[in-house]
Amino acid sequence: MRPDTEAELAEVVAAAAGPLLVRGGGTRTLGALVGEVLETSGLTGVRLYEPAALTLVVGAGTPLAEVDRLLAGERQRLAFEPPDLRGLLGRGGVSTIGGVMAANASGPRRVQAGAARDALIGVRFVDGRGQVVKNGGRVMKNVTGYDLVKLMAGSRGVLGVLTEVSLKLQAVPEAEATLVVEGLGEEDGLSGLRKALGSPFDISGAARHSGRSLIRVDGMAGSVAYRAGRLRDLVGGDVTLVEGAASAGLWREVRDGVPLAMREGEIWRIVTLPTAAAEIAARLEGEAIWDWGGGLLWLCLAPGRGAEVAAAVAGRGHAVLVRGESAPVFPPEAPEVAALVAGLKAQFDPRNILNWGMMG
């Protein structure tokens, strides 16, 4: 099913007799879901774009690439740097802006600019009853008492089907530079990232993979040059400065998990304490990409090690299996969290038909 309007979508959901598998471009779905496929790719189009106000309102089914092209024409961008995981997950398809927001898909710049949910200022969606709900942006109807804008970001379609999103944007900076730091072991390399992030030099990316650390700064050209020089003295190691398009290319690799894309095995996404990342990776002995100074860890492991991952991360973070089939995608939730999720599900999807099985 592929409705072309919000009203058609509401009718489809209201009339559904069984589970619905909500899909934008199919590039970010996790796990083996069941149900009749409900595509949102017909809900396209720019509803409002005000470059001077750094504001965009767009249909949820609009391709992400189309949004990027539109913004580039005004030297603007999505601040949260959404990743393209098709290579990592071995998929085709076209990523949609609604899918990005439903997954709260955020890249390396999250450490400075926040996640996708922080750029979301308004939503329209159809809940599990087939009712149209709107919150935030230019029109506000918040009869539930929930902050629906934040709630929908990262909900992966289990509470409602996004039809329209309103976003705040960011101007593209004048300059960008990355310090590539080599010659340091994992502990010292991650320690350098934490030093950089704790400095006053406004870091927009801090990552490590393949034996080298990457530290990014952007902004006015003079400011970038000054901060890069100060950071060179701070982090130590053998430092090379990479600028402009070459710098951007380095961060696309981190953003999209390119160093792990051709590796065989399961891919885990672990959010943890930056101070715990090196120990977790060493304990599990997998090839790793550390992002956000170590707070986000992408790890490639042999299949069947879900129990080991859970034990290594216990009490220090959250692990999700993004590629592989040997363990539940989402780990069991704490009882109080599970109760909260169940309450929200009952409020917005009492028939439990939307993306059944996605989150437990």
Overall mean pLDDT score? 91
- Given helix and strand content, the structural type is alpha+beta
Terminus-to-terminus distance: 25 Å
Number of strands: 17
Number of H/I helices = 14
Give the topology:
Blueprint: H1 6-15, E1 20-23, E2 36-39, E3 46-50, E4 55-59, H2 64-72, E5 76-77, H3 86-89, H4 97-102, H5 110-113, H6 116-119, E6 120-127, E7 132-136, H7 148-152, E8 160-168, E9 170-171, E10 175-182, H8 186-197, E11 205-209, E12 212-219, H9 221-235, E13 238-243, H10 244-256, H11 258-261, E14 266-272, H12 277-284, E15 287-291, E16 296-301, H13 306-313, E17 317-323, H14 335-348
Parallel strand pairs: 1-2
Antiparallel strand pairs: 3-4, 4-8, 5-9, 6-7, 6-8, 10-12, 10-13, 11-12, 11-15, 14-16, 14-17, 15-16
Explain what the structure shows.
This protein has helices at 6-15, 64-72, 86-89, 97-102, 110-113, 116-119, 148-152, 186-197, 221-235, 244-256, 258-261, 277-284, 306-313, 335-348, and strands at residues 20-23, 36-39, 46-50, 55-59, 76-77, 120-127, 132-136, 160-168, 170-171, 175-182, 205-209, 212-219, 238-243, 266-272, 287-291, 296-301, 317-323. By secondary structure, it is of the alpha+beta class. It is globular and about 65 Å long. 44% of the residues are buried. The model is unreliable at 138-143 (pLDDT under 50).
Structural key phrases:
alpha+beta, 32% helix, Uridine Diphospho-n-acetylenolpyruvylglucosamine Reductase, domain 3, 3 domains, 360 residues, 17 strands, Alpha-Beta Plaits
